[in-house]
Design goal:
27% helix; alpha+beta; 7 helices; Fumarylacetoacetate hydrolase, domain 2; globular
Length: 263
């Protein structure tokens, strides 16, 4: 059976806009990963056609914890859009998302194009202009009876936005870096990077390879989300999320601010 990629992509975008992502997966549709990436690409084209721009890429499902949680065994990629970038301190509503869940992770901004055929660790690291913590926002909805990577891919790796620090940070001054994820001031998770350079280089190398197989590449100015080592965390109304490092910035977001609810 030949799938109508254009039709499925238009439906995916309509569902995304309606905050009911991926309804076709509840109907038992079966896709290969290649077909799922073709749908993701066509959705991107439709979003660009209406004025949205790609700000970069994310690599997802990189850790055993997330792979087990989502039911797949290898990394995938998704696109980031500039209109879904939020500054630290933003107030959002859970109604803007479907099954809102967050991850705390490291992001990088590239200062140079990443060579697609590069195998040199130092060359990858030399493409990194800044490193900082981010809150990644997700529509954590999986509708298929049997979980598979194709559903995640066609849903743009569940991506629904990201929150960045208000200041432009350079590179961390020390090798180790710890991320603290708190909900309403209470510690929810902590991730320690013994050598943040190794995590960043591995993420860029893996993402660059994935993108190259689809005719895409990482360019100067792109933002890259490097993947979470902790589980997706569901977020309820009235929650303040903070992802912070000891000496290298933080990002915060409040969902359904309690003061506005009370008012």
């Amino acid at each position: 059976m030949v799938l109508d990629i254009a039709h499925l992509a238009a439906r995916q975008l309509d569902d995304y806009d309606a905050r009911t992502p991926g309804t076709m997966f509840a109907e038992g549709i079966s896709l290969s990963e290649e077909q799922a990436y073709a749908i993701q690409s066509e959705v991107c084209r439709l979003r660009e056609q209406r004025g949205e721009t790609v700000a970069g890429y994310k690599i997802g499902c990189t850790s055993p914890v997330i792979q087990q949680q989502l039911g797949i065994d290898h990394p995938i990629f998704g696109r980031l859009f500039s209109n879904e970038r939020h500054d630290s301190g933003v107030e959002l509503s859970t109604n803007q998302f479907a099954g809102l869940a967050v991850e705390g992770e490291l992001a990088v901004r590239l200062s140079e194009d990443v060579p697609s055929d590069c195998g040199d660790r130092d060359r990858f690291l030399g493409c990194v202009g800044s490193v900082f913590p981010v809150i990644e926002l997700h529509n954590h909805v999986l509708r298929a009876v049997n979980r598979a990577a194709a559903e995640l891919i066609a849903n743009n790796a569940l991506h629904a936005g990201f929150v960045v620090p208000n200041v432009d940070l350079s590179l961390p001054s020390s090798d180790d870096l710890s991320l603290h994820i708190t909900l309403n001031g209470e510690r929810a998770a902590e991730v320690t990077y013994v050598r943040w350079q190794e995590a960043v280089v591995q993420a860029i190398a893996d993402l660059s390879s994935l993108l190259a197989s689809h005719g895409l590449s990482l360019r100067a100015g792109h933002l890259v989300l490097t993947g979470s080592l902790a589980e997706l965390i569901p977020i309820a109304a009235g929650t303040r999320v903070e992802v912070s490092t000891l000496n290298h910035g933080s990002a915060t977001a409040t969902f359904d601010c309690l003061s506005s609810i009370d008012g």
